[in-house]
Amino acid sequence: MNSTGAGRTDVVSVYRSECEEQPQRLLELFDAYRSDAGVRKKLTSVKNAISRDLPVLWLGMGASYCSALVGVSQLTRLGRSSFAREASEWLHYEVSTRNQVAGPILVTTSGESAELVEICRILEVREPILLCNNWDSPCWSASRIRLPIFAGLERANATKTYTNSAAAAVILGSELAGASWQAECNQVVDAFGKSLNHVFEQRHALDEFCRGATNIEIIGRGPTLAGALMGALCVREMTGVRVFAHSGGGFRHGPLLDVSPRHVAIILALGRTANLGMRLVEDCLSRGGKVVLVTAGGDTRRSERIFPIRVQQAPEPWEGLTSVIVPQALTLALAERLGSNYLRVQTTSE
Questions:
Q1: Whole-prediction pTM value?
Q2: Is 344 within the bounds of a domain?
Q3: Spatial distance between the Cα atoms of 125 and 40, rounded to a whole number of angstroms
Q4: One domain, residues 208 and 239
Q5: How many folded domains does the chain comprise?
Q6: 43: which residues sit within 8 A by CB, 6+ positions away?
């Protein structure tokens, strides 16, 4: 995609339309995972292939790694040990531990990751388990147990593929732990759709609030850490604006010291640790910083230094999906004002 003229307009409009598709794509995934016989059979295969005695490992890169973190949140909240690693790090430094983990579950929205293809080759006798959006990809061909995420063709950066792969990861975590998830689907789609419309209507005011900041950092905990990481990636890939993500604890132990009047913290105060997010808001304000406060409640008023945005309440860990909406909206507003030089990068073998 070039950086001038129609190309810039094109990718921005594509990005917006793909963001707007997310509720419908999410509903399609839920319907398939609830009732499609082929998908249900694959879920049974996953449960049979995953050892009950070992911690469950998830592997991904970029947006896919962020999605995997939401699956980890679901499994751990249900009492099952689980963790996620970047596929490249695990491949080059930790593959010797493969017999000490269950899985791994491989997550790739594009199916083009050279690291995951190599991992499939190494794990051939272990029946690699794959969450993927591309049925014609090298990863799909290289794996044996394959679950689609039904996000459709994606031409801008990861939006609906993150949302659907994160949702699939929650479902997979629930299935592995023997927990029900079907009753939450309608609430999740409703919360996501209403939040998306509400937040995107405020995107230009959000952009104006953040304008002139030297640093913009997104902070989350638990499932919303995935939203923070994905949100920062979204802004940077689409606009080139340098935005960073941190866990709440990681931000407090270091980056908080750099907060100044030209610093904007986007604090995702959602879920069980929302109170810790509110405390971080006060600390940032006390240092002269500005805060975009993302909550599911409260009556905080907008001022010169605080921009509250409300998203709909979602059951844990589904806030891993709704938490990414505010960064997505900021991305669109920045791209509409500045244009976008986004170019999808194809991963090559290392």
A1: 0.93
A2: no
A3: 23
A4: yes
A5: 2
A6: 33, 147, 171, 172, 175
